[in-house]
Each structure stands twice: as structure tokens, then as C-alpha cells.
Amino acid sequence: MFSRSILLQASAMLSMFYTSASAQNACNNSPDLCSRPYNNITFLGAHDSPFLRNEETSFSTSGNQYYNTTVQLDAGVRLLSAQLHKSNDTGLAQWHLCHSSCNLLDAGTLEDWLGEIKTWMDANPNDVVTVLLVNSDGASTSDLGTIFSSSGIDKLAYTPPSTSMLPQTWPTLDALIGNNTRLITFVASLSEGASTQYPYLMDEFTFIFENDFENVDPSNYSCTPNRPTGLGSPDAAAQSGRMFLQNHFLYQNQIFGIQSPNETYANVTNGATGFGAMGVALDECTGVYGKPANFVLVDFFNMGPAIDNVDRANGVVGSIVGRKSVSDEALVQSTGSGVMERGNLLAVVLAVGVAVAFGA
């Protein structure tokens, strides 16, 4: 007879082996997603992924997320968005990730951020990640392509059959993983159009439409297409064949008309039920378009938690493997007197100063 301790050790080893094997057979944390086309999956997106509200930024009220991009990916986020600006702080023009202005919140260079994403993707070969760059200062495809190449992430990039026309079919996650073309990149927008030299840089609004994104009241959420202009109605958007990116985040108005991400209401905003809840909005837009949104972009991704709504939309509740958990609570800052507070008054003052200086 085997001793009890040997049996327990064997059971533990078998469990570890099973978990490892399951993770290898999963795509984006679920085996049920492997055979689905890219455009038949709902991906959780971190709005302004690199712009943090934590100790690193002194809890800047311009931050949209509490946890960095690596933690976001570990926790199931698969769409990462960022604003791109030209910075001259070093005397040389560099492309930085900045929130509205590099004087307000500068998260570093695009190259460093792409390097962080590549490091994660190299360690997670069964995952497909989408990057959406808001091209605020008109970077050219050559500017972007050079940086993608320098970071090495271009080696993972998916190239569509055409950069000017929607594909008849999108590849499955299995196909993207098998070909190691696991990075999907959209840019909003490319003023000179897509490039034959860097065809993996896709103009967002050729392939995607969005609903409105400037909401300060939970009653403002809508399924109606807002961008690109000209689609007009949900029917026109659906018939265009574009994928739907559903913006679902809330701003709050501060002094001088400045807007900042609303963290106070985030648990409801990203929750399943309640006035203005993500789960309710997903269901509403699913009814309008006949299928769930392809991407749902949120602030403070860990709250709600938002990922639960995405799992439900994908029908994969109970089949998740390899995903790391993260607290669904807001991060708070100690004032040193034992009192905890959200945000940072200094960041608000700086935001006001920037707005006044730039005539915002």
C-alpha cells in the first residue's frame, strides 16, 4: 500500500500537470476561444492602459488604471489603448505616451511600452493581444514602424490581406497563435493611409467603429455609432462589416471644465447590474447589433470586475485557465495622518495649470 503522504504528493503533481496542460491548450485563457474567429470574440480593453493612478504617479487624477500593462494582461485584458504624442523634453523629438499633454502625464516612450508588451507575449505564447494607438500628433507609418521594429514586437504582428478593405474572414485565435502573428495593431488614425512597408499598422476606422466616448453621466451611454463619421445608424454600422468597439467609461467634470476618469462610480460602471453598468450596456448593444461588441474599453479594469462581463459575453464562464487574479478594489493613497483618500489634489492643480497654459 502507498503511504498517505505519497498519494497526496502524486495527487498534487497530477493537478499541476493538468493545469499546465490545460493552459497550453487554452487561447486567451479559455480552450473555448481557440476555434473562434478574431471578430467573433469580445476582448476586454484597458482604456489608456499606461496612464496610471497609483504611487508611481502620486495618484494622478489623470490616470485611468491602477495597475500597469503587465498586470492588466495577466488579469485578462487583451486590448491595450494609449495616446501617442511627440515630446521634445530631451531636446530630441521622441514619441511618448502622454495623457492629453506630456506636461500632464507622461508614461514614457512608445518603444519601452511595446517592449513591455513583447516581454509578456513572449512568456505567453497562447495569447493574442490587440494594441490601439490614438495618434494624437500625427505620427507617420514610418515613425511608428521604425519604433515597432526597434522594440522587436513587429515580429509578432498580424498583417491583413488588405489594408484598405475589410477581410472576408478573420483568422481564428488558433491560426494567429499557430502562425505567431499574435499582435493586432490599429492606429487612430493614419493621415497618409496604410503603408506597404508596414502593412501590420491598420487604420482603425477602416476596420472598427465606435460609440460615443465622452460621457459624464451614466444615462449618456449609447450603442449608436459615433466614429467614423458617416455611418449614422446601427444598421449602417453593422452592414459595413466593421468590428464594434464599445466605449464604456465615465468622466467627471472638474474646475475649469477639465474632465478626469471617474473612479468613484467605477464599481458600478464596470459591474454587471446597476444604472449605467457595463453588463447592462453590453446586453443592450448585443440586442441592437445581434452579437456582443468585439471590444469593450474601460477605465480601472480591475473594478466591477469588468472581466466577468466579458467572460459572460463570450460564454466562457467556468472554462478560464491561467488567468491571474487582481484586487477588485480601488487603490487609495495614505496622507500620512492615517487618513486614506482617492486621487491627488496636486495632480488636479497641475491639470488646471496645463489647461490654462495651453488655452484649453
From TrEMBL:
The keyword Signal applies. Pfam families: PI-PLC_X (PF26146). Keywords: Signal. The keyword Coiled coil does not apply. InterPro entries: PI-PLC_domain (IPR051057), PLC-like_Pdiesterase_TIM-brl (IPR017946). SUPFAM superfamilies: PLC-like phosphodiesterases. One of its GO terms (molecular function) is phosphoric diester hydrolase activity. One of its GO terms (biological process) is lipid metabolic process. Residues 1-23 form the signal peptide. This is Phosphatidylinositol-specific phospholipase C X domain-containing protein. It comes from Cochliobolus sativus. The lineage of its organism: Eukaryota, Fungi, Dikarya, Ascomycota, Pezizomycotina.
